[in-house]
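Page 37, continued from 36.
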């Protein structure tokens, strides 16, 4: 076999370490230095399995079993399992509690992974309404309407799914209202917390949710791929059913999920998560400051206002205007930010972009604001 492996010898991430990364999908997954030191010992394949006696969630060394119990407390749920991401968590719920052909009633801002999960589980869906431009908020009452409509036409509803914070606008949905509707109608309720758990405080019990899908690499300062599924005890038997052949192994987990660095990194970052969610108000202050400072430049923030989450989506007609006359065309903004050590804004975009300053220091936030101001004021 003639395979040239030279190209794998110097794989680098091609990202200057000092760069300030504004990509919302990446800000919540940055590991604190302490976690980086801990995972150094765990880079071998099945590194957490040295003392396994049959199942990942029961491993005592390293203390995965205790970590999962503590994580349940952190999320206000009863039982937690590691997964490879929020999408795998959603799929595990759908595949276990719904029957083929059932309907999932989900919000109009649901992520594509909710759709691929339900398609893979051979389910149908009904999408609820959202507000129009520019807020695009989920309308909780629409859940009741869609449920009534499906019931009237004798369709079987298997699950109610809500995206806690959507990735397009960063709107925080009214979970309590949707939870009340799901409960009063008697349907199980799954909350997709990919963009919330680990960034902001979550209490599943208070929110009336039956399942939480969380994402380690997106919002829990963990190496990807990694996630969590937290469930209400009531659903333990269905969701965590074990194999008839190997009675210890859970079917939806295909026996065991995260078997190395990802789960270990999540454990190593747990203390950091506990501390950082306490500072959510400060994150919102920084986010709102960015919006207030940048809108006068000719940006328009889309989604609910003021911001209740760190994702910021701006419409940017001013960048479009500059791109018309700049010889770098649409790439000027990316290039100018890069010169200033700022990355994470998509290359070539001028009509709108998304950003987040989650976890940056106040000095870094001011630097980002001033950099954008100076780019636009110099080139307009
Ligand atoms: C709202 C939302 N849910 C789920 C996901 C997927 O998360 P994961 O990669 O953990 O499956 C994303 C990723 O962008 C997301 O924005």
């Amino acid at each position: 076999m003639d395979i040239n492996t030279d190209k794998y010898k110097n794989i680098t991430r091609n990202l200057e370490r000092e760069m300030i990364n504004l990509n919302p999908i990446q800000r919540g997954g940055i590991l604190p230095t302490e976690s980086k030191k801990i995972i150094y010992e765990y880079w071998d394949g099945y590194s957490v399995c040295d003392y396994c006696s049959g199942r990942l969630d029961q491993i005592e060394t390293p203390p995965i079993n205790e970590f999962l119990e503590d994580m349940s407390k952190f999320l206000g749920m009863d039982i937690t399992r590691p997964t490879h991401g929020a999408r795998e968590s959603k799929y595990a719920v759908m595949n276990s509690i719904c029957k083929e052909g059932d309907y999932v009633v989900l919000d109009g801002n649901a992520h594509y992974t909710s759709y691929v999960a339900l398609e893979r589980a051979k389910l149908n869906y009904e999408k609820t309404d959202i507000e129009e431009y520019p807020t695009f908020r989920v309308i909780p009452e629409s859940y009741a309407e869609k449920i009534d409509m499906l019931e009237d036409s004798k369709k079987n509803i298997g699950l109610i799914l809500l995206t806690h914070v959507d990735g397009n606008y960063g709107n925080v949905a009214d979970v309590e209202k949707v939870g009340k509707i799901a409960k009063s109608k008697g349907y199980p309720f799954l909350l997709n917390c990919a963009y919330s758990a680990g960034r902001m405080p979550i209490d599943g019990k208070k929110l009336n949710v039956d399942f939480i899908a969380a994402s380690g690499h997106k919002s829990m300062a963990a190496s990807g791929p990694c996630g969590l599924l937290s469930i209400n005890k009531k659903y333990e038997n269905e969701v965590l059913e074990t194999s008839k052949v190997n009675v210890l192994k859970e079917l939806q987990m295909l026996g065991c999920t995260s078997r190395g660095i990802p789960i270990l990194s999540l454990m190593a970052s747990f203390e950091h998560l506990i501390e950082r969610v306490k500072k959510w108000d400060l994150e919102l202050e920084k986010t709102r400051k960015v919006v207030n400072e940048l809108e006068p430049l000719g940006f328009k923030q889309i989604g609910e206002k003021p911001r209740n989450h760190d994702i910021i989506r701006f419409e940017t007609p001013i960048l479009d205007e500059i791109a018309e006359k700049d010889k770098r065309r649409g790439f000027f903004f990316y290039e100018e930010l890069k010169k200033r050590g700022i990355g994470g804004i998509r290359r070539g975009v001028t009509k709108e972009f998304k950003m987040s300053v989650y976890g940056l220091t106040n000095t870094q936030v001011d630097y980002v604001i001033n950099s954008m101001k100076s780019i636009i004021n110099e080139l307009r």
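Residues 19 and 341 are 5 Å apart (CA to CA). Flag for discussion at group meeting. The mean pLDDT is 96.
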